[in-house]
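Task: sequence design from structure.
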């Protein structure tokens, strides 16, 4: 089966078009993962009502949402929502492309068939490794259901011969990293479309001890051209003879990718601001990114940091197209694209970085100098 997975959009060259909306259809979840942001917040939980979701999709720009991606993702499990199929159907009826990120526990054969039949373009299953013991340490349950969910999706796609990108996303921690090579092999054997390996955002002191990016955060703030020597490498086969060279290239700078060979594409770059993304919570709050969706605590640079939510609109009061065009929100996106924030990872933490409300450059809140997402450490789903 050959599938065209190209995302076709009507935006042209507009650098500030709304292209993708992360919709937290519910903040409820059927898991209590050790690394979850819920350990760093105190907020009521809820499901997005169907009429609110209708207002959201009816308020999309670009021919009522044609070409815009609705990604069911946030800090809840989308399949817990009692009317998840109806929400997907509404988005597809408006011409939107639909993606979903799920832990897979509720994704049996019937749910997989429904996702394919509804025309969902991409499903990402959170799988931190194929080793159930390691997986359970983070997620509290066996990996069996998540792994089975991937097989159900593959079977449904094969039976219906309908296009759907299927992949897995893993959070790399000291507890899980040893299981990731087996995950890559498993994904390769199944010919999955993609594997995403991101880092942990620690919300507790215990999780702060699990991160694998202390040096990476420090190295990310340096200008790529400042590293000596810079290394340009032609492509070569990976085999026994070349593995020592590959290892030496990977180890230069004590991070991966090494600053010596990294092009620096993710240094000081926010995907949400550069690629036209925003997020909407279950109760209708519109925020510039997933990190600003809920107030929560992060442990960065060995100190607790309170990240305060930043709401730019409410879809019960304004269509999303109007919120996106609001001059204040536009100015914020321009400021983030310029990324004139202090190099907080290099400084190593100070009283100003205890919240995201101020920095030493005098930027208005929220400030983004200590955002691990913008340094390519934590990957946007």
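Answer:
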């Amino acid at each position: 089966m050959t599938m065209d997975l190209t995302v076709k959009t009507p935006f042209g060259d507009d650098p500030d078009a709304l292209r993708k909306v992360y919709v937290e259809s519910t903040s409820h979840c059927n898991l209590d993962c050790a690394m979850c942001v819920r350990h760093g917040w105190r907020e009521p939980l809820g499901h997005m009502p169907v009429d609110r979701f209708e207002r959201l999709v009816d308020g999309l720009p670009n021919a009522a949402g044609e070409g815009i991606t609705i990604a069911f993702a946030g800090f809840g499990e989308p399949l817990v929502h009692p009317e998840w199929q109806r929400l997907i159907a509404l988005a597809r009826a408006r011409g939107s492309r639909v993606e979903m990120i799920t832990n897979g526990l509720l994704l049996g054969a019937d749910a997989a068939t429904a996702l394919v039949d509804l025309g969902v373009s991409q499903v990402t299953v959170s799988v931190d490794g194929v080793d159930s013991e390691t997986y359970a340490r983070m997620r509290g349950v066996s990996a069996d259901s998540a792994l089975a969910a991937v097989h159900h999706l593959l079977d449904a796609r094969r039976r219906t011969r309908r296009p759907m990108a299927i992949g897995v996303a893993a959070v790399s921690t000291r507890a899980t990293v040893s299981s990731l090579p087996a995950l890559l092999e498993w994904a390769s054997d199944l010919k999955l479309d993609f594997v995403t390996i991101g880092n942990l955002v620690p919300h507790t002191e215990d999780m702060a001890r699990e991160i694998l990016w202390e040096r990476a955060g420090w190295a990310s703030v340096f200008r790529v051209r400042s590293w000596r020597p810079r290394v340009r490498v032609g492509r070569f086969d990976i085999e026994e003879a070349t593995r020592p060279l590959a290892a030496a290239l990977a180890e230069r700078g004590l991070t991966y990718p090494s600053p010596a060979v990294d092009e620096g594409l993710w240094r000081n770059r926010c995907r949400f601001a550069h690629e036209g993304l925003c997020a909407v919570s279950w109760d209708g709050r519109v925020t510039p990114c997933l990190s600003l969706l809920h107030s929560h605590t992060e442990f960065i640079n060995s100190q607790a940091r309170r990240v305060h939510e930043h709401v730019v609109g409410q879809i019960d009061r304004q269509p999303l197209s109007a919120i996106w065009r609001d001059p204040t929100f536009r100015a914020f996106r321009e400021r983030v694209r310029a990324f004139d924030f202090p190099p907080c990872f290099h400084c190593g933490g100070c009283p100003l970085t205890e919240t995201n409300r101020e920095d030493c450059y005098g930027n208005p809140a929220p400030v983004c100098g200590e955002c691990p997402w913008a340094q390519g450490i934590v990957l946007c789903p």
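The longest strand covers residues 165-172.
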